[in-house]
Specification:
It comes from Phaseolus vulgaris. By secondary structure, the chain is mainly β. The chain contains two helices and 28 strands. The protein has two domains: 31 residues; 329 residues, Methylamine Dehydrogenase, Chain H. Helix content is 10%, strand content 42%. A hairpin with a 5-residue loop joins strand 18 and strand 19.
Length: 377
Amino acid sequence: MSVAELKDRHSAAIDTVNNLRHRLKQKRLSLLDTDICEYARSQGRTPVTFGPTDLVCCRTLQGHTGKVYSLDWTSEKSQIVSASQDGRLIVWNALTRQKIHAIKLPCAWVMTCAFSPTGQSVACGGLDSVCSIFHLNSPTDKDGNLPVSRMLSGHKGYVSSCQYVPDEDTHLITGSGDQTCVLWDITTGLKTSVFGGEFQSGHTADVYSISINATNSRMFVSGSCDATARLWDTRVASRAVRTFHGHEGDVNAVKFFPDGNRFGTGSEDGTCRLFDIRTGHQLQVYYQQHSDNDIPPVTSIAFFASGRLLFAGYTNGDCYVWDTLLAKVVLNLGSFQDSHDDRISCLGLSADGSALCTGSWDTNLKIWAFGGHRKTT
């Protein structure tokens, strides 16, 4: 077979795949006769309301000298770890603003960080393609720096995201620019499973975000620059359980819904979306029309403990609080006088749901407290 014939067959195969993808999209749309918002309205549900003291900025954590790229809360204590382009991880006491640790990193170009479930260790990764583990109780070296306890090497691209497996300090999942996710055994420093790569059901572009299901830690979801999210089972690394389409840009953030049956996404296309892992259907789109038609990308998302609120950070400094039932913005933290001065790059909720922390390219982190420990259902 000649090269020209091979090119023709390849071109025909691409056309067939695109046609099938379009037909599948139309079929999915025909099955979605309603969404969460329309159903909630038909049931007479009213939007969540916020008073002037229901969510306020109570602390600003200052200490980084570069853009903040990632943050994570401990599962029990009121501590936060943040990663910055200044080449340091800082562990903060969220109540006192005190810096507990300032960890100098082997590579300044850090993109992600995470606390272990016990809070005894932190992990980080970035452009060095390595996930570095630090035990916070380890003795410092002669220069006062905390040494790296373990380096997880094996990715062929930058490490964009990392998360410890819930209730385990010994296993961690990373996402990478090499289009794969990896489950690591931290004790040995070896890969337990690789998700994607040479497998047909893997991502076809950089993996940018991951989220492990808190109700079933064998399941996790990944978001990619191929505009899809994929669901994985750590027991079956050879193929994705399901692929979720809908976004028209990079999926920058993924986060499981509190019940573990759904997950949210945030994308470069300026939308957040909610998907059901059981049916594979898109349940809702969260999109705010701007008067200047400039649609800022979504950088990070988090759900309130009840699932009624979705927090989304944007590149223009806005941080929307969405009512997930009615797909309505009920608050914009970016409009407050004490808001960030630059892109919201990361955000997360404390384990008890009493506070939200946002990180920004303005080098600061801000803690937002829910007044009266209000409950939203």
